Amino acid sequence: MKHFFFFRWLTFPFRYAFSKIKKKIGKLDRLRLEVFLVIGNGSQVFLKGRVVEAYRQSRPSEKKSALQNILATIRRYAGSSVPDAKVQVQYGSFGAELTADSEGIFESLLYLSDSEEPHPKTIRLSLIPEEGLVPEKAWVKKEIQQVIEPSPRAIISDIDDTVIISKATNLGEKLWLSVSKNAYTRRPFPGVSEFYRLLTVDGEYPVFYVSSSDWNLFDLIRDFLKYRNIPLGPILLKDSHVNLRNIWKSGGGNHDHKLEKIRFLMEFFPEQQFLLIGDSGQHDPELYAEVIRDFPGRVEAVYIRRVGKQDLDRERELNQLLPPNKVAWVKTTQEALIHAKEYLYLS
To answer: Which residues form the Phosphatidate phosphatase APP1 catalytic domain (predicted)?
Structure first.
């Protein structure tokens, strides 16, 4: 991983300069505003997205061949991000101007005024006119996913090897699944849809997905959840840029960003109690243990899918942080379903 960051640091001036030159001479393709996340808590709205050169992406299908899916993956990762692009944000009667970073990513925490009632339900974004920038669309409009009153429960869930079969501990298998499958041919673990619908009362309670996959996979994950009838919710992915040269690193590396995003959710919704779901293949048990210590009384229960051999010493730490039967180590989703019905009194 250190070599990757060194390479990114070493090549950054060239990549950044190339993008700036293309913009200056008007050689950028039409630009796309991709909005990943717009969530609100009644007084604030958090927004995240990126500016990229527009690329054509075919719709997923069960009939697509491995070759067609590989070509779609190439298109997904070949698009160039646009640094320093300026984005105008309009929500209700208020506006803000954001600037994309060196990887084309923009984000902001926007504050809602008490004087504006009712609060806006949507947000509009547009590229600020600049020489060499031609937007694909004049405006992009997104609904604000609001959680104003605490629900009886909210879910924070990992994705790889928790919801979707990813083989994250096997680099070769993980890479092949990533490039040769699409949202309709990737497979969930059996029973995941039923389990998540049980926990969220058919999608009534909020669910947030946090993963070490990169933002290039946002549309794949969203379409996968829709297709497999798994409750939808905000998706928070890894910020570091992944392209065709380092595509194999998607989902790997340091997972501290997951902890940062979970902490953000706990702080953004300070009165909400959460249930955490993950797997033992990476560092979810350790991350979740830290969350429980940092936010006492805020975690209702934890479900961890066992990947590989059982590690009793590793499990002991997490087991000691919550009351008995509030941490479930399971091999299958069916085991998790049985546990939820018995100990969370769900039916």
So the answer is: 154-306
